[in-house]
Every structure is written in structure tokens, then in C-alpha cells.
């Protein structure tokens, strides 16, 4: 198949591309700067809102577009125009490019738990409204509606995945409000100290990069007929508390985590639901994130060595 | 107050403008062609997606924008690009113009029951998801999310009203799937024959133009603090069956209605919910549509003579 990954230079995009490359697909990787990868792929650099660049990225023979190019929540909050341009207008550009394809391409679109909000403890129904409390979530939820309509009209064949918080992210801590969710595991596993801004009873909805790549691949090839009109999927992530995450570490690792409550962080991530009904997603073939040990194993096997090397540890 | 009505030349826009004019507001009426009205108003013609025209329509001193300019469902279904341009990008142009105002203007935005869908008989909760089955509804629901986010950010102060089917519309039958809902009352009241494409047990969610104008005016001046994040309001419309509508006519009028079942019409309007929980809207001061006789009285008093004259009856 001809598969284009927008945001193909990012952390999830590269992992998905590596997986798809082993399966013999014709890959196009598109990002702000053309990705450099150790396998066969057409690599392009450009702006996701530039029609010329998007026509090159999504040629007429395209079967699948995996659209991971996004401005994340903290950045979209800080720069409204940038978030609107990439998260909303970038998705409209995908629809426009798809309309020029030979047949309606599958579009795998990702938003996240940050497109929802709910009081602590809420179990989200499968048809729960997206009520975002941040611009990223509003832009993504709006884009989902438009992709869903374009699917109904036969312009695209979209699957809209709302991803849990992805842990353990490789690399370094960043400024995202959710950065601690990966840091609280990754830093101790690297032998480094870290801080914990929320209380141990704090619950989160999470999945490993390995499972997310499985979901993206499944969304790219699945039969979409059973979806009907509703193109949104809350995949079977794992609900964990911070206390459970700490318990998954060794005592020595755990000693590297220092409680440092931060009301501003708790206020943001505290609006993200931690529990979702996921029977539909499982029925549709999305494999569940089974356990916290599986998340740690994925990090150890897939990303620990590279993260050590990147950080000179 | 300085009030701009986009779509000010339309049926509801003119009625609202006439009402606001009696209250001494400084009115700007904007439509594709500059409206001509028998009261003091600044009347402009232009394209709702043209930044220059919108800057003229929404000058910096604007207090309220009532945004009624829209491509209706049948037209947006037939012409995707036109619907996207007016319903989505037109609303984005309102946000951009609002950002240049001295203070964040109130934006009264209207979508409709067509932005929802549900199995027949469903009572829609106040936080029910908008799951549109038409492009109009998708564009409007997406625009609502972006107006809600712009409100959270303090760029605008939006109230998003999802209007019931408005009856009795003056004028003539049109090609809208919902045209029969007005025709089945209006045509007999004019002494004319009409057809009924759905079964008598068919339920609808309706409101008179008079009540809708009340809602628009209330949305323009209400205190929005109690809305919190959720800027969407399902106002207190009336649930009626077609049988009840027919029963509100005299026997002679009723004899002018001929059953002519049309599966395609029933398929479209059959997805629109007819029942909404509306306690929140009532608490927020939106007066309910009390009865079918009140709807008929509003038509007789407000629009019957003008409709007779317009149609040469």
C-alpha cells in the first residue's frame, strides 16, 4: 500500500514508519523538516497547511494517510494562531488533498484524552461528548467532526483515535503538563531524580508507544464498515494511579522520586478523564494495553538504550 | 449597544433587527446584499468570509454579534465547498474580527436540531454529543467548539443556540427536507392544499419565529457567567406530533392536507431528535415555547397578512 505519515519525523511517526517499512509498504514521511530514516521511504519537508506541499505528500495513488502532525496542548495554548493553523487548517488540507486521490484514502487521525474533560472519577461512555478545556482539544474535536462528515460523503475514510497519555516517552522531560507521567518512570529507570507534582491517588489513562503503534497500524487497515457514522474511537488504554506507577519501580528507583505538589499541573491534568468504556474499540479489534509491567517492558526493550545514548548516560 | 446582525437580511435577522431597533440600539445589518429596512440601521452587503467586509461589519466598538449567516442543510449537502466556506470559515472570520474589538463581543451563534441525531424517541440530555448526519450540522458543531474555546480564551463571549425547527415560516414552501413542517400549517391557513410526507405519529421539536427572536435577544444580553465552559444551549422548544399539528387546524383546513408518504424525507428528518431536556436553558432565562396554539397565534398576528400579500392571495 501507499502510506503517507504526516508528522513522520516525530516520536510515534518514526516508530510506525519502521514497523510499516518491514511490511513492504511504499512510505512517504512528511514533517516540517524531511525525516532521515534507516529504511526505504520518500521523505519530504514542508508545511501541513501548504496545498502544494500536501499535494506532494498525498499523491493521487495514496491508500492511507496517518495524520500525526500536530501542535501539542501546551504550545497550542501559548500560540493560538499556530494551533489553529496546524491542528484545524492542517486537517482541512488533508481532506482537500484526499479529494484529489484516485479513491478515498483511509485517514488515521489522532487526538487525545485532552479533547475530553470530566469531574475526577467519571467513567466516559463511548458516546461521551468532547468538552475540551484547551485549544488543542477544541481544534482536534472540531477536526474530528469534519473528518467524520468527509467520511460520510465518501471523500475520505477516517478513523479518529483519541489517544491516552503515552508513557514511557523516550528522551527528556519537557514543558507539557503531562510530562511528569513519563518522567516519574523514565527518570528513575535512568537512575535520575525526578519530582511528582500530583498526589499518589491521582488516576491516569495511559498506553505505551508500542501499543499505540499497534493501534495506528490497525486503524490503517481495519474494516471501517462496522464504525458506521461514528468515526471516533476511544481505544482500550489502561487506567493507573500514580501509586501503582510508583509500586512498579524498585525501592531504589522509587527513592529517586520526590513529591513536589504543583496545583497548576494538577488543575490541568485533573480535568482529563482516566476511565473509558472501551467495549466497542475492543470489538473493533484494538488490542488493550494490558498492564503497567507491559508498559515498563516496552520502554526497557524499545527505548531505554536509545534514551541513555541520547542523554549521554 | 452596538449590535451587528450577520445574515441581517434573512427572515429571522429582520425580525430581530426590528425588535432591537425599537430598543434604541445602534444596528449594523450585514448580508450578501445590503438589507433595506424601514428603521435606522447601517446596512452592508458582502461576503462573511471576506476579512475586509467583516472588519466593516464588526467595527472595534461592537458589543454584540448575532451570527445568523449560514448555508442551510440542503444547500450545504449539495455544495460542500460553499457550506464549509460560509458555515465554518465564516465563523472563523467572526472570531478574527472579534479579536480586533475593544472588548470581547458577545457572539450569539445559531445552529439547529440538525446538528444532532438520535434514534426515534430519544430524549436528548443537556450534555448530549452532537453527532450530525449532514455537512451543515458538522460545520456548525465544529464552529461551536471553536467559539467555545475562543470564549474560554476571552476573545469572544459566545452563546451557541441549537434552534428547533422554526414554524410557521412565512413565505412559500422550499426544497428543505423540513419544509413540510411549516407547510402543513401555513398552506391550509392560506386556504391552499399541501402534502404530508411523514406519518401522523411523527414527533418534531419546534418553536415559533416570535419565540426564537426572544431567545436571540436574551442570548445577546444575558449574563454568561453561569454558562461556565459549556456555551451550548438547547433552548426550551416544544415537542409536537404531526397529529397534534393537524388537530390544531379546523376540519376545513385539515381537509386541505393530503397524506403523501415520502421515505426520503422521513429518513432525513427522522434522525433529528424531538425531545430535549431543557432545565438548564429555562434556568438561564430562556422562555419556553408554550403551545401549538401560541405558534399559530404568532403566525396569524405576525406573518399571515404579509405572506398573503407576498403570494398574491
CATH superfamily of the largest domain in chain A: NAD(P)-binding Rossmann-like Domain
At the fold tier of CATH, the topology name of the largest domain in chain A is Rossmann fold
Major protein interface:
A-B, 28 and 28 residues
Q: Calculate the mean pLDDT score of chain A and round it.
A: 96
SSE pattern of chain A, N- to C-terminal = EHEEHEHHEEHEEHEEHEEHHEHEHHH
CATH-scheme architecture of the largest domain in chain A? 3-Layer(aba) Sandwich
Number of helices of chain A: 13
Tell me the total number of β-strands of chain A: 14
What level of helicity do the residues of chain A show?
40-55%
The rough form of chain A would be described as globular
Total individual domains of chain A: 2
Your description of this structure?
The structure is a homodimer of 313-residue chains. Chain A starts with a strand and ends with a helix. In chain A, the strands form four sheets. In chain A, strands 3-2-1-4-5-7-11 form a seven-stranded parallel β-sheet, sandwiched between helices. In chain A, strands 8-10-12 form a three-stranded mixed β-sheet. Chain A has a two-stranded parallel sheet with strand order 6-14. Chain A is 40% helix and 18% strand. Chain A has 13 helices and 14 strands. Chain A is globular and about 55 Å long. The first copy, chain A, has two domains: 2-163 and 208-233, Rossmann fold; 179-205 and 237-310, UDP-galactose 4-epimerase, domain 1 (Alpha-Beta Complex). In chain A, helix 1 packs across helix 7 and helix 4 runs parallel beside helix 5. Chain A has helices at 11-21, 51-57, 73-78, 80-99, 135-152, 179-189, 209-221, 242-247, 251-254, 263-269, 279-283, 292-302, 304-310, and strands at 2-6, 26-31, 42-45, 64-67, 106-112, 123-124, 157-163, 165-166, 194-196, 203-207, 232-233, 238-241, 257-259, 275-276. With 313 residues, chain A is of the alpha/beta class. The interface between A and B is medium-sized, with 28 and 28 residues.
Amino acid at each position: 500500500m501507499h502510506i503517507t505519515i504526516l508528522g513522520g519525523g516525530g516520536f510515534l511517526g518514526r516508530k510506525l514508519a519502521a514497523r510499516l517499512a518491514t511490511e513492504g509498504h511504499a512510505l512517504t514521511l512528511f514533517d516540517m523538516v524531511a525525516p532521515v530514516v534507516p529504511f526505504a521511504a520518500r521523505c519530504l519537508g514542508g508545511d501541513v497547511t501548504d496545498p502544494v506541499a500536501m499535494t506532494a505528500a498525498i499523491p493521487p495513488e495514496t491508500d492511507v494517510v496517518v495524520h500525526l502532525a500536530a501542535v501539542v496542548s501546551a504550545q497550542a495554548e501559548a500560540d493560538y494562531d499556530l494551533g489553529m493553523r496546524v491542528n484545524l487548517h492542517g486537517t482541512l488540507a488533508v481532506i482537500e488533498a484526499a479529494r484529489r486521490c484516485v479513491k478515498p484514502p483511509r485517514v488515521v487521525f489522532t487526538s487525545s484524552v485532552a479533547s475530553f474533560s470530566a469531574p475526577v472519577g467519571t467513567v466516559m461512555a463511548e458516546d461521551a461528548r468532547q468538552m475540551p478545556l484547551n485549544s488543542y482539544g477544541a481544534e482536534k474535536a472540531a477536526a474530528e467532526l469534519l473528518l467524520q462528515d468527509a467520511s460520510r460523503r465518501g471523500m475520505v475514510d477516517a478513523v479518529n483515535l483519541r489517544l491516552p497519555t503515552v508513557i514511557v516517552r523516550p528522551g527528556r522531560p519537557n514543558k507539557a503538563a503531562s510530562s511528569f507521567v513519563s518522567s516519574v518512570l523514565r527518570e528513575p529507570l535512568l537512575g535520575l531524580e525526578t519530582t511528582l507534582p500530583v498526589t499518589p491517588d491521582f488516576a491516569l489513562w495511559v498506553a505505551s508507544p508500542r501499543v499505540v503503534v499497534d493501534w495506528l497500524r490497525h486503524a490503517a487497515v481495519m474494516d471501517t464498515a462496522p464504525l458506521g457514522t461514528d468515526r471516533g474511537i476511544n481505544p482500550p488504554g489502561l487506567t493507573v494511579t500514580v501509586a501503582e506507577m510508583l509500586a512498579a519501580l524498585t525501592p531504589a528507583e522509587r527513592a529517586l522520586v520526590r513529591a513536589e505538589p504543583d496545583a497548576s499541573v494538577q488543575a490541568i491534568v485533573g480535568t482529563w478523564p482516566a476511565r473509558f468504556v472501551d467495549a466497542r474499540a475492543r470489538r473493533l479489534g484494538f488490542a488493550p494495553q494490558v498492564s503497567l509491567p507491559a508498559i515498563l517492558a516496552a520502554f526497557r526493550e524499545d527505548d531505554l538504550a536509545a534514551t541513555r545514548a541520547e542523554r549521554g548516560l
